[in-house]
Specification:
Layout (H helix, E strand, L loop, with lengths): L2 H34 L5 H31 L6 H18 L3 H12 L19 H8 L13 H19 L2 H8 L10 H16 L7 H5 L10
Helix pairs in contact: 1-2, 2-3, 3-6, 4-8, 5-6, 6-7
Length: about 230
């Protein structure tokens, strides 16, 4: 791991600790106010509760990014690529309700986190997207402002949106992964099992009381459901 990347991790960790201290402090103040002045200070209590929620959500985002960087730092990525990919994974997974560990499992299975991977059939990038899928999503209004097909972060962004659309269609992760891997009309050759086994390993690394997955609940988004 580079010195720059190590320093980035240290800065993020310091932010996590500072915000954790602030959250606990606000929680203590809120508890005291509610206990001593249950009715007279309802407005102040509501304001503090709202501030508490804002700080807590920010803490979850910072910690989510830190935990992802802990994983990405040992992958064949530059510092800039790892930082961008972490942000995209957190953002798109939250918006599209896709488990982050599924995304990581797909990337490792498809490309081993090698940004320049090209399959014999023409699939490209971290999430090994076929040209037809790539063109369909990149030409949409939402992604028209993004540029290069060689951009790893954009490749991941498109891949997550594709996974999201497949899950909306099939509602079952085994079917989704079979289609994603191109095995809809042929033997999957243990592809689905491989992705899910890697995803489970990542789940154990990132899921916890204060882990990445809690960000879904903090933002009022229901945890993604599926048959794993």
């Amino acid at each position: 791991m580079s010195v720059i990347f190590l320093e980035t991790h240290k800065k993020i960790l310091r932010k996590v600790k500072r915000r954790a201290f602030i959250i606990h402090g606000l929680g203590l103040v809120l508890t005291i106010i509610v206990f001593l002045f249950p009715a007279a200070n309802k407005i102040e209590t509501d304001l503090i509760r709202e501030a508490y929620g804002v700080v807590k959500r920010h803490l979850v985002e910072v910690e989510s990014r830190y935990r992802l960087l802990e994983i990405l730092r040992n992958k064949p990525l530059t510092v800039g690529q790892a930082l961008q990919i972490a942000d995209v994974v957190i953002e798109e997974s939250k918006v599209n309700r896709i488990p982050i560990y599924i995304v990581l499992g797909v990337i490792e299975t498809e490309s081993s986190f090698k940004t320049n991977s090209i399959s014999s059939e023409g699939a490209r990038g971290l999430m090994q997207l076929m040209p037809a899928i790539w063109n369909e999503y990149v030409k949409s209004d939402q992604l028209s402002g993004f540029s290069s097909k060689h951009d790893p972060a954009l490749n991941v962004r498109v891949g997550i949106r594709y996974l999201s659309d497949l899950f909306k269609q099939y509602g079952d992760w085994r079917k989704v992964l079979k289609v994603y891997g191109g095995f809809i009309n042929k033997s999957e050759k243990n592809y689905v099992k491989l992705v899910l086994s890697k995803a489970e390993r990542y789940r154990k690394m990132i899921e916890g009381a204060d882990g990445i997955y809690s960000s879904f609940e903090d933002y009022g988004v229901e945890k993604p459901k599926g048959n794993f």
